[in-house]
Specification:
about 350 residues, Immunoglobulin-like, five-stranded mixed sheet, four-stranded antiparallel sheet, 19 strands
Length: about 350
């Protein structure tokens, strides 16, 4: 009847206005496509929003279920209600009171492909846990792609290293399980330095990175360096590179003999110069010594005395009476040079003496 229809419409409107939860205001954000490594683990990021403020975790119940069966629980606070093949392998990593519904699944099986959907239930009060509102986000579900083999690490490095200079190799690998991060190891037994870092690339995908730094030697040329990634569940993958080392040019066999030769030449030149100067100095001192011993550069007193006597004799000869000249009786010249200069005068004087005696 018309009255019954109107009553139903009124009841529906009243329920809509009185309901503390509006379906249009509850939203969930889930990463919809992820790759999962069999035997390893996976983390499905999830968050939700609601019209209520500061809802405590004690009033919220988070549930993960299969999309095609609301009773096929992948995760539930009541462990007995979880599907047997998921029991003990799932847990919530986030706090529902912080709007975090992230799910972890460990020991991945081939059939764990989903899709998996999140569902939230709101209890009446903290003491009365009976639920009055339930909301399933069946349009935002996560589906997994199963991987039988782990991803291969990637290596980043220079083509050639230099002997004696630091060389760096970076190894990185992606994964989908930040709660059990893969471990990276190197084949070198004595590395100089290893630095590791972990970061999120984008929702649902993370990367572990290891940076190896060492000082290569000549023996490392054409050697291999391997980076191995060990995932949760003990599956491994590795990447290998070949190391090429450029030897440092060594010119010591040229430099050292050259330096020694130059040093010997310089020292020899200095010694020669010193000896020449020393010889010149001693030669000068010797000449001065002989000069002082001979009484100076001028004639000595003993040398002058005969000159005076000869001079006096010559004077006496001029004053004495002129005689007939005879070559034998002619006295020797007191000054040979003077006689040479006055040769003509001497001849004239002899002629006068001859004629005077006559």
């Amino acid at each position: 009847t018309g009255k019954d229809r109107n009553m139903k419409i009124f009841c529906l409107l009243l329920a809509a206005f009185c309901s503390p939860v509006f379906s249009g205001e509850w939203k969930a954000t889930v990463v919809k496509n992820l790759k999962a490594l069999v035997t390893s683990c996976i983390v499905i990021p999830c968050s939700f929003t609601h019209p209520k403020e500061n809802l405590p975790s004690s009033r919220l119940r988070g549930i993960w279920q299969r999309s095609n069966d609301k009773q096929a629980f992948v995760y539930n606070e009541d462990k007995t209600r979880i599907l047997e093949n998921f029991r003990g392998r799932t847990r919530l990593l986030g706090e529902l009171g912080q709007d975090n519904c992230t799910l972890e699944i460990t020991d991945i099986k081939n059939h764990d492909n989903g899709p998996f959907c999140f569902r939230i239930e709101l209890a009446r009060t903290e003491n009365d846990l009976s639920t009055i509102d339930k909301f399933s986000f069946i349009e935002d579900c996560a589906e997994l792609t199963m991987l039988s083999e782990p991803p291969t690490p990637s290596l980043v490095h220079l083509e050639t290293g230099t002997e004696g200079h630091p060389y760096t190799v970076t190894c990185s690998v992606t994964h989908t399980c930040p709660s059990h991060v893969p471990t990276l190891t190197w084949s070198r037994s004595t590395p100089e330095k290893i630095v590791e870092s972990h970061r999120q690339l984008h929702p649902g995908h993370w990367e572990i990175q290891s940076i190896l730094t060492f000082i290569p030697e000549e023996k490392d040329d054409h050697s291999e360096i391997t980076c191995t990634a060990v995932f949760n569940g003990q599956k491994t993958s590795s990447a290998t590179m070949k190391l090429y080392i450029k030897r440092t040019e060594n010119y010591n066999h040229i430099i050292i003999p050259t330096v020694v030769g130059i040093a010997i030449t310089v020292i020899s030149a200095v010694v020669c110069i010193f000896m020449v100067k020393k010889y010149n100095m001693w030669n000068r001192i010797s000449r001065l010594s002989r000069r002082f011993r001979s009484g100076g550069p001028g004639p000595s007193h003993s040398d002058q005395r005969p000159n005076n006597v000869n001079s006096q004799s010559c004077t006496d000869q001029k004053v004495s009476k002129p005689r007939f000249p005879s070559p034998k009786s002619q006295p020797k010249s007191c000054n040979y040079k003077e006689d040479l200069d006055d040769g003509d005068d001497y001849m004239n004087t002899a002629d006068l003496n001859v004629y005077g005696n006559i």
